[in-house]
Design brief:
Strand content: 15-25%
CATH superfamily of the largest domain: Isopropylmalate Dehydrogenase
Order of helices and strands: EHEHHEHEHEEEHEHEHEHEEHHEEH
Subunit structure: Homodimer.
Bound molecules: nicotinamide-adenine-dinucleotide, 3-isopropylmalic acid, manganese (II) ion
Number of strands: 14
Function: Catalyzes the oxidation of 3-carboxy-2-hydroxy-4-methylpentanoate (3-isopropylmalate) to 3-carboxy-4-methyl-2-oxopentanoate. The product decarboxylates to 4-methyl-2 oxopentanoate.
Structural class: alpha/beta
Main location: cytoplasm
GO molecular function: 3-isopropylmalate dehydrogenase activity; magnesium ion binding; NAD binding
Largest sheet: 10 strands, mixed
Strand order of the largest sheet: 2-1-3-12-11-4-5-10-8-9
InterPro entries: IsoCit/isopropylmalate_DH_CS, IsoPropMal-DH-like_dom, Isopropylmalate_DH
């Protein structure tokens, strides 16, 4: 049975890292006879250059029809001066929202070989395996009204709206409880319920769901403390569930626990687990085109695609084992480099993962 995968390389380092993930997928496709068929499309700045919009209707339709989407990253200085409506990032947000990809899974796992690549002490991070479940299609990212308006006195004011409905909180909450059931059965809901009503409701709904999952221990934490605890003692967490913006920020912080943002993959899923798979990092314009970007977050996102949307757990595990084998060989891109290791570029890292499969 054939499966369609839409590949959206995007901007900056996007095409470089996605090319490595494609090589890996081609090999795994042949090895496991997965019947994956790939097609490519434009998203972000690349789409603005070609069509004048960051996500055109034809690409959106292809994304909606695909079994899964693999993305690189979008954005860059070339398009930073454009108005909000046609910024590259809007293409990605429209894709997430149109396809109802509300559940964003961001696993921060420390590969033991990288214990010295983290800026944190070895004993703080070794053995780390935490999952951030970020709500992805609501919250302050999408709340209306929003904009920049001119007040009667002529001064301008920017404003956004932070809101979540009970049903939005419930569906991400259930998803997080279900994830916790399959892991360490501890769920920490992160909010700002001491200040923001929207998260008072968030906390109430999480508490209401808890009796449905009696085996899961639910705790609550304010987001400022959570940021501190992530750096102080990250292994206290099993699964974290939080809103769109808090999840965006906390997951970049969690990335550094794994050695580099170049190690953090993600899955963005709808209610049927169809989804978009992309590294958590951005288009890294500062290193684009230099063959130095770490492709492992994208390769690990491809593994998540096989696991969650294509039901190919064995193939997903094979990719994760190959990544681990390459780290065992001592190969490192610059971002995860440490003493005594062998520095390689983006392409060589991709080739090494293919060879290890
Ligand atoms: P960024 O994640 O692109 O880069 C932050 C830092 O991490 C940079 O120093 C970069 O070189 C480094 N880095 C990122 N990925 C790396 C990798 N794979 N290997 C090695 N180093 C890596 O964040 P930014 O600089 O704030 O944003 C740059 C652009 O990317 C902006 O236009 C932003 O909007 C966009 N962005 C896109 C996404 C996405 O597509 N999902 C995510 C974040 C940022
Ligand atoms: C991410 C990015 C995006 C976000 C941007 C590019 C819209 O930072 O995927 O983490 O904020 O969600
Ligand atoms: Mn982000």
């Amino acid at each position: 049975m054939s499966k369609q995968v839409l590949v959206l390389p995007g901007d900056g380092i996007g095409p470089e890292i996605v090319a490595q993930a494609r090589k890996v997928l081609d090999k795994i496709n042949a090895q496991f006879q997965l019947g994956l068929q790939f097609e490519e499309g434009l998203l972000g700045g690349a789409a603005i250059d070609a069509f004048g919009v960051p996500l055109d209707e034809a690409t959106l339709a292809r994304a909606a029809a695909a079994d899964a989407i693999l993305m690189g990253s979008v954005g860059g200085p070339k398009w930073d001066q454009l108005g909000r409506a046609i910024r590259p990032e809007q293409g990605l947000l429209k894709l997430r929202s149109s396809l109802k990809l509300f559940a964003n899974l961001r696993p921060a796992i420390l590969y033991p070989q990288l214990a010295d690549a983290s800026t944190l002490k070895r004993d703080v991070v070794s053995g780390l395996d935490l999952l951030i479940v970020r709500e992805l299609t609501g919250g302050i990212y999408f709340g209306e009204p929003r904009g920049i308006r001119t007040l009667p006195d002529g001064e301008r004011e920017g404003y956004n709206t932070y809101k979540y409905s009970e049903s939005e909180i419930e569906r991400i909450g259930r998803n997080a409880f279900e994830m916790a059931m399959k892991r360490g059965k501890r769920l920490c809901s992160v909010d700002k319920a001491n200040v923001l009503e929207v998260t008072v409701l968030w906390r109430e709904v999480m508490d209401r769901l808890a009796p449905e999952f009696p085996d899961v221990e639910l705790t609550h934490m304010y987001v400022d403390n959570a940021a501190m605890q992530l750096v102080k003692a990250p292994k206290q967490f099993d699964v974290i569930v939080t809103g769109n913006m808090f999840g965006d920020i906390l997951s970049d912080a969690a990335a550094m626990l794994t050695g580099s943002i170049g190690m953090l993959p993600s899955a963005s899923l709808d209610k049927n687990r169809r989804g978009l798979f992309e590294p958590c990092h951005g288009s890294a314009p500062d290193i684009a085109g230099q063959d130095v970007a770490n492709p492992l977050a994208t390769i690990l996102s491809a593994a998540m695609m096989l696991r969650y949307s294509l039901d190919q757990e064995d193939a997903a595990k094979a990719i994760e084992r190959a990544v681990s084998a390459v780290l065992d060989q001592g190969l490192r891109t610059g971002d995860i480099m440490s003493e005594g290791m062998q520095r390689v570029g983006t392409e060589a890292m991709g080739d090494a993962v293919v060879a290890a499969l």
